[in-house]
Amino acid sequence: MIQVKNLSKHFGDLVVLKDISVDIKKGEIISIIGPSGTGKSTFLRCLNLLDTPTGGTIHIDGIPLLDKGTSVPKVRRKMGMVFQSFNLYAHLSVIDNLTLGPVKLLGKKRAEADQMAIELLKLVGLAEKAHSFPDELSGGQKQRVAIARCMAMEPEILLFDEPTSALDPTMVSEVLAVIRRLAREGMTMVIVTHEMEFARNLSSRVFYMDEGLIYEEGTPQQIFNHPQKEKTKAFINRIRSFHYRITSRDYDLYAMQADMEAFCDKHTLPRKVTGYVLHMAEEVLCLQQDFSDIRISLSYSEKDGSVELVCAGGGAPRNPLEEGVAEDDIGIKLIKARCRRVDYRYENGKNILMLKISGE
Ligand code: ADP
Ligand code: MG
User: Fold this and answer.
1) Mutate to test the pocket of ligand 1, among 9, 13, 15, 16 (most ligand atoms within 8 A of CB)
2) DSSP class of residue 127?
3) Distance separating alpha carbons of residues 248 and 290, to the nearest angstrom
4) In angstroms, how far is CA 37 from the centroid of its own chain?
5) Angle between helices 94-104 and 110-123 (to 10 degrees)
6) Could you report the per-residue pLDDT of 242-288, keeping only the tens digit for each?
7) Helices assigned H by DSSP within the chain
8) What pTM value is reported for the model?
9) DSSP tally for the chain: helices H, then strands E
10) Which of 218, 231, 244, 346 is the most exposed place for a label (fewest CB within 10 A)?
């Protein structure tokens, strides 16, 4: 359905896309992941000609997009794009947002457009908001309207550019649910996202973009569990774990806990486990002697749903797990009682404590 060959895009001297070749079949759901600034948005924008590629070819359903004779508006209509910021018309009601394109551009009769709009609003769960205005809606609702508005143009392909990244965390799931539903109905979709669990569960293929290329591609299983190339591995490791550095005794405990909580939420850990993680981090920090350079990391194991908390702190070698070593004896007893496993080692001048935390 989409065939891209040797696509490149330069902005002046800046080479954003070097050489991208890829085929996307009908019904596929592609997630694009990668660090920011690696050209993910530019790639989407080239696909529907919001940006003009510098070189290469794009075919949509066999139609050469970049040929002079091709009608750009007509081809573009095959693709709907959903942006991070919803881009609804503020002065139009929800239903008018949905019917404007079909009436003006597709020549639909008003009644027909209205009926279709209502069907689509039902699909995204917002039929009762048909006559509301965008500023009466929450961010998640606005984004669902934006998706419905895209669908009203009857596209064959939907492109999403980080559709949930402007949303309050509580509203992410309602938008992802709508995208999931469209996926089930067989829509072809290309989604730039940093919702990794979503990408993993929904996509047929994942593209990891870096260095102006689709640096590595594969099934979610391949990319998330067995990445082959250096940068993909580094990226996946980075997003799978959480790192925090403390450099003084007056560190900001609440900021650290908020970050840890966000990490736990991202992995949809039960509240109970999140609570244990925050508590254990606090206890571990109470055992530290030297606060000049402490590093705490969390990593989540999907296999057994546990969280590994590692704390590396300075000072003389001292195993707090040994009886009578730590001044904070109660702290260490709490840690031992709560964790499934606790290990200590001294390595590269650091006292390293490893805790395995689960819901049990
Ligand atoms: P991503 O979506 O992966 O974060 P983008 O595609 O937005 O990356 O941007 C890739 C690079 O291209 C960035 O360095 C960005 O500054 C640059 N860029 C994007 N759009 C333009 C533009 N219109 N003019 C100049 N540079 C741009
Ligand atoms: Mg982007």
Assistant:
1) 16
2) G
3) 9
4) 15
5) 130
6) 899 999 999 999 999 999 998 898 788 899 999 999 999 999 999 99
7) 40-47, 72-76, 94-104, 110-123, 139-152, 172-184, 196-202, 220, 230-240, 253-266, 271-286, 329-338
8) 0.79
9) 12, 15
10) 346
